[in-house]
Amino acid sequence: MAPAGRLRQGRDAWFSAAYSDRTLVTALDPATAEPVGDRTWTGLPTSSGTAPHLVAGMLEELDVRDGHRVWDIGTGTGYLTALLCTRLGSRLVHSSDIAPALSEAARTRLASLGLTPHLSVHDARYAHSEHPGRPGRPGFDRVIATCSVRSIPDAWLRRTRTGGAVLTDLDLGIEGGLVRVTVDGRHAAGRFTRTTARFMAARGDAHTYFRERRPPYAPEAATRPTTVTAADLRTHYPFRLLLAFHLPYAELVYHCAADGALSLQIQRDGTWARSPITGERPGSVTYGGARDLWATVEAAWRWWNEHGRPAQDRFGYACEPDGRHHVWHIPDGRRWDLTP
Q1: Of 112 and 33, which is predicted with more confidence?
Q2: Domain range for residue 179?
Q3: For the chain, what is the domain count?
Q4: Which residues are 35's β-sheet partners?
Q5: Which EC numbers does the record give (predicted)?
Q6: What would you report as the CA-atom Rg of the chain, rounded to the nearest whole angstrom?
């Protein structure tokens, strides 16, 4: 193919991707990035352009009104920032990102559209002396974050006016999801939203993630039958979320055995339990450690079915400035403490 034809084909592919309704990875962690083709790379994503339908759903959940000041956390490509500027005007939109290069590229794109929001580069989870939401300035009416956090940072609560709202992805380990809370001083309460989305974790480095050191796996203890399988966990998002309430900050990972069999594994503090996806012994669980984690899975499954399989928006969420936070089942008030 002639160079002009290849250029046109490449341009058409870029336009097709940009106007598609899917999330597009735009940056990779350099420590994990490697080429797998002439123009293809793989690695741990550190930034992306969120699928337009998810952005639309989040903005509906955010419920922005005329005159609202909004803090957009995770500038990225600047797409969400541009939508907010178009709706509210640039002077009411503030956006933060941890990566200087991404922020500067977004600034250039936004300026080409005549949009001039307030952009800053810092870890938005913590106080920042140059940020426009500092004490003495008006609080934000809305805060929206396209990154996940383990609990809503106190810095976000302090920069949101009383009656304002924060919308973010809450990462509880096994599962998480979008929560929308209303701020009252430095306390906030709300619920998980009908819109479901998961985002990359907030980080303190412009390029890479902090690597946690995990304890070694405990020796295998036993294998037994179970009525709750890996397929049940994979199929039901609200159940995974409920399980995260029972086992906060445990991990759900895929485990590949030496023979190629694939299992879904829950692990925490060296304790683990896995149920096969492929291979022999479907409907069984193998576990190791001081406790049988899968017994918690089975108890949560019973509760979820006995209560009519509630969706995620049937659960409330509340947090305090000292990091304490909890969820509850809205119909009957059953509560789970999430504080590490």
Answers
A1: 112
A2: 48-192
A3: 2
A4: 41
A5: 2.1.1.77
A6: 22
